[in-house]
Task: structure prediction
Amino acid sequence: MASPDVQSGVSQHPNSTVYVRNLEERIKIDDLKEALTEIFSEYGTVIDLVAKKNLKAKGQAFVVFEDVEAAERAIREVQGFELFDKPMLLDYAKTKSDATVQREGNEEDLELHKRRRLAEKERKQAHQAAEDQKKLKRPAGATAPDAATARPIKATRGAGLKSSNPGAGAVVPEEYLPPNKILFVQNLPEDYDVDGLTAIFGRFEGFREVRLVPGRKGIAFVEYEAEAGAISAKESTAGMGLGPESKPIKVVYQRQ
Result:
């Protein structure tokens, strides 16, 4: 089935999930998944198949087999096979799929796997945001920008803790800060105290304490023993409505 002119292109370590790219983007997701299932089922039991229609994931799919041997056979035989007039390019996925982790472990293992994946995603976002900010930096010797030009750059700076080092690089927006075991919580109702916040954040793994800032209302720091607890808490509480008006709170990682 494989085209003899196509290089294998395999760069990842063998596992039971096959990453498929260069798929025809105009095909409906249901039709694409049906075609992929029919093709890959020839090489082993397919326990999951993930293909999404959002822009970033278009043209890609993940085929999860019951075992590594089936994935190896599929990559060897299907590499370069044309589907909807486009040759499929196959490799092993970089990480195990959710279906594989759940099959080999339990719900706790699956939750930990998801947290690690989320942490890695946020690290990449933080790195990309930092790179984007560097591109906005004015080169040495350039004339100072006028107020209208400077305003958009200033607007990207985080509203939380800022570096006191004047020679520091570009400031990463709060939304893209890398995971940290300490959360910075903003927009809190003025009447919320340590006990009230502990009731919210204390239910997540590894909770240590809530710290209010003397003389500053509406903000607090929440610390966990490890990043995993902070990640879960951030994902579950960001945007939560508190107080009589259900005002959404803002939860970000503390700037390091």
Q: What stands out?
A: The first strand starts at residue 17 and ends at 21.
